[in-house]
């Protein structure tokens, strides 16, 4: 895909993935890579920022002798995701109009 995912849109996508269920870091990066062109080195700083901002929480669980770090969405994160969804709908409608060659004055 030639279009790149910017900061807030990437955050929205991460929150949406995690909203379904808590997910450990590696699985999250694999799911994100299936949907968009993004590297682990891009995702982990975003995850840390979302956690710092109170939108995600983390916990560790043992798995085959190692710990997996799981990410879960907080209530504040769910509210932020809802805001992103509303903003996305308006943004998408405007972009669709531009790409379809429709003038706003028509």
Q: Can you describe this structure?
A:
Helix content is about 60%, strand content about 15%. It has a 3-stranded antiparallel sheet. It has one domain (about 5-100): Arc Repressor Mutant, subunit A, CATH 1.10.10.10. About 15% of the residues are buried. The protein is α+β, with helices and mostly antiparallel strands and about 110 residues long. This is Transcriptional regulator, PadR-like family.
Question: How do the strands and helices of this protein lay out in sequence?
Answer:
Elements: H1 7-20, E1 23-24, H2 25-35, H3 40-52, E2 56-63, E3 66-73, H4 75-99
Antiparallel strand pairs: 1-3, 2-3
Helix pairs in contact: 1-3, 1-4
Order of helices and strands: HEHHEEH
CATH-derived architecture: Orthogonal Bundle
For this structure, what is the CATH class?
Answer: Mainly Alpha
Helix/strand class: alpha+beta
Mean of residue pLDDT values? 88
Radius of gyration from CA coordinates:
16 Å
Query: So, the CATH homologous superfamily?
Result: Winged helix-like DNA-binding domain superfamily/Winged helix DNA-binding domain
In percent, how much strand structure appears in the residues?
15-25%
User: Strands across the major sheet, in which order?
Assistant: 1-3-2
- Helices, by number, come to 4
- Per DSSP E runs of 2 or more residues, the count of β-strands stands at 3
Total domain count: 1
Q: Within the CATH hierarchy, at the fold level, what is the topology?
A: Arc Repressor Mutant, subunit A
Q: Roughly how much helix do the residues carry, as a percent range?
A: 55-70%
Main sheet?
3 strands, antiparallel
Global morphology: elongated
List the uncertain runs.
none
Cα-to-Cα separation, first versus last residue: 31 Å
